[in-house]
Amino acid sequence: MSIVDLARTEIRALAPYSSARMEASGGTVLLNANESPWAPMDGDGLNRYPDPQPRALVEGLAALYGVDAANVLVGRGSDEAIDLLVRAFCRAGYDAVVVSPPTFGMYAVAANIQGATVIEAPLADDFSLDADALLGRVTPAVKLVFVCTPNNPTGNVVELSTIERIADALAGRALVVVDEAYAEFAGSPSAATLLDRHDNVAVLRTLSKAYALAGARVGTLVARADVVALLRKIIAPYPLPQASVDAALRAIDADGLALTRRRIATLVAERERLRTLLPTLPGVRGVLPSSANFLTVRFDDPRGTYAALLAAGIVVRDVGRYRGLGDCLRISIGTPDENARVVGVLAARREAA
Ligand SMILES: *Cc1c(COP(=O)(O)O)cnc(C)c1O
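^ thats the input. predicted complex w/ pyridoxal-5'-phosphate below
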């Protein structure tokens, strides 16, 4: 059996839309896609439909993530991959996904849009993921299990051995989707290394965080080739705007990679500096250990702190609605100057308190 046998029958049987760019390539006089023969006033090449899965980008991302090109599907951010997975694997009204709150909200949103049931397997009190507790929540209806590592908004890493245990236990039953949006800040091994041994593992990567391209919307699903082929049937015909493809290629060329490595080092150093500094400031109860590019911080007065930061022009994320995070704000690591401004506002709250 293949993991794709778990997908919706009608999706497996689907004949995908065949776009002009897929049916024919090469040639110099392009009269097959009803495009304008002229370039717009600015933006050379933008009169042409983009390549659905640009070869150079697919190969570059495969090299970046240590897999083969056949294991890569590029789309509009990891958000699109989450949506495609839920739509391909979950029948409305029948199937379910497992999420481990407090975690990224898009998994449940995508499931709700599709009419799939959301089963919660909450993280432990220390926000670690208990594989046995999670497996105990899996019913025959579950097709996808989402694991976020480092987890947003708690920042902790889920060990590869835990993910492998879950994948082992769910072999032939469900696909384990590992969201590694912040992996570059953690330095721990990717779950993509499990693909050879486990056909029911899929990994989400993105250029939105470490690679500074949130505005370009470029995310990657890394999975077995048959899962990639399945999702290619339902992805939009031209998911990637040409300008985003060009920006992504620059971000992962030699200069781009070198710049990103330096920036990651700066952000990680700032994160560790703030992690020890913040608890010495008035009104700070503690800082959750984080392997991501943010710190989730407990405050005596989180709402007042939020307002004080906002009054200084600094916007952070109020994560108080999450279970176990009622007194928390999530603060992205900024430039050293930006971080100094945060520290300045928090230090000044001594007088206010
Ligand atoms: C930011 C983030 C993403 C990235 O989503 P994109 O659509 O690629 O921008 C994915 N997962 C988590 C947990 C995130 O925090």
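The pocket of pyridoxal-5'-phosphate is lined by residues 77-79, 104, 148, 152, 179, 181, 206, 208-209, 214, 219 (CB under 6 Å).
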